[in-house]
Amino acid sequence: MSSLRPLREDPPVLEEWYRRHLGPDIHDISSSGVHPYTFAEIRELCRIPAEDLDAVVMDDSVSQGGAGIRQAIADRYADGAADRVLVTHGSSEAIALTLSMLLRPGDRVVVQQGIYHSLGHYPRAAGCDLAELPAAAVRDGEIDDDVLESLVRPGTRAVIVNFPHNPSGATLSPQGLKALTERTAAVGATLVWDAATAEIAHRWEVLPAVAHDDMVSYGTFSKTFGLPGLRVGWAIAPPELITAVFPLRDRTTLFLSPLVELIAERAMRQADVLIGTRAAEARRNLAHLTEWMAEHEDLVRWTPPEGGVCALPIFRELERAAAGPAAVERFCLELLSRHNTLLVPGTAFGAPHGARLGFGGPEEGFRAGLAELSEFLRTRGAAR
C-alpha cells in the first residue's frame, strides 16, 4: 500500500456520506431520485417477456451505445438524431467523457453555485478559469438579465448548469431556458445542461429537450425513471464531440452490456408510464412536505422546489448560530443515530446550515421519516 500515489483530492462529500451511512432499515429521506422499481415491475410495465431476455446474445456492444437504445433516447430527447447520442455507465461517465474532451486549461467556464460535484470537478481539474452563477440570480424561472449578460460574455467557453437544481429544486421556466440558450449561442459558448430531473416539474411545464449544435445535455435512468441500479445514462452532444471521446472510452469502460441496453431501450419506450407513476407519488409527498414545513416554520425555512424530487431546508438553529460546516454534519449524524433517519448534510452542496431532503420515496416511508425528523427537531428545540 505504501507505493500507492496519494490522491489529489478527497472523495466527494455526497458519495462518502452514502458510503458510510446508507444502510438497510432506515428512513431514507435524502435521495434526489424517485424510489426504484423492481425488475418484475419493469418487465411488466415495459413489456419484456422472458423470450426477449433469453434471445439476448451476450456479445460486445459498441462505444457509442447500441442502435436500439440510442434511437430510443434520440426519439424522446434529440429529435430522432441518434448520431447525437452517447450511451454511458450512468450520467457520471457521460459528464467525465465529454467535459474531459471539451475543456482546456485557461478556458473561461461559468458554473452554477452548489452544482453536482462531478460537474464542478472537471472544469477545476482541467485548470479552467471559473466564474460562479449565484443561486440568488435564478428567480421566477429566469436568470437575472444583468447577471446573465455579465457572466456569459464573449470569450466564455462553456456554461454548466443543472435544472431542476439538485438539491434546491430551483429551475427555469421554458422561457428562462430559451433565454439562456440564446445567450450562450450569441457569445459562442457551449451550454452544458444536466437535465437529470427535468421531467418532473411542479411550477411550470416540463422543460423541453434542447438539442442545439452548441449544446451538451445529460440524462439518466437514475432520477425520474426509478432505475438507478441499471446504471445507464447518456449525453446528447455534437457528433464531433462524441467521436472525440472514443479514444478515452476505448481505454476504460468500452461499452454497456447488450442485456442492460435491451432493458434500457424498453424502459425509454415506456418513459411516460415509468416517470408518470413516480412523479404523481412525488407530488403527493411534496404536498405533505409543504404542510409539514408550515407546521415547523419556527425551526426550518425553505424555498419550495419548482422541479425534481428534493429540497434544501435550512435549519434555523444552525443559521442563527452561524454554525460552521461541521455542525450540520453532526446534526445529520445525531438524527441518524437517534431516529434512524437519513438526510444529506448541506456541506455536500456548499450549504452549511441545511440538508438535502428527498420526497421521491414511497409515501408511507416518507411520512414516517418526516415524523422522526419532527420529533428530533422538537426535542432539540425543547432542550435549548
UniProtKB/TrEMBL annotation:
Residues 69-366 form the Aminotransferase class I/classII large domain. InterPro entries: Aminotransferase_I/II_large, Capreomycidine_synthase, PyrdxlP-dep_Trfase, PyrdxlP-dep_Trfase_major, PyrdxlP-dep_Trfase_small. One of its GO terms (molecular function) is pyridoxal phosphate binding. Gene3D superfamilies: Aspartate Aminotransferase, domain 1, Type I PLP-dependent aspartate aminotransferase-like (Major domain). Pfam families: Aminotran_1_2. It comes from the Bacteria. Coiled coil: none annotated. NCBIfam families: viomycin_VioD. PANTHER family: AMINOTRANSFERASE FUNCTION, HYPOTHETICAL (EUROFUNG). This is Capreomycidine synthase.
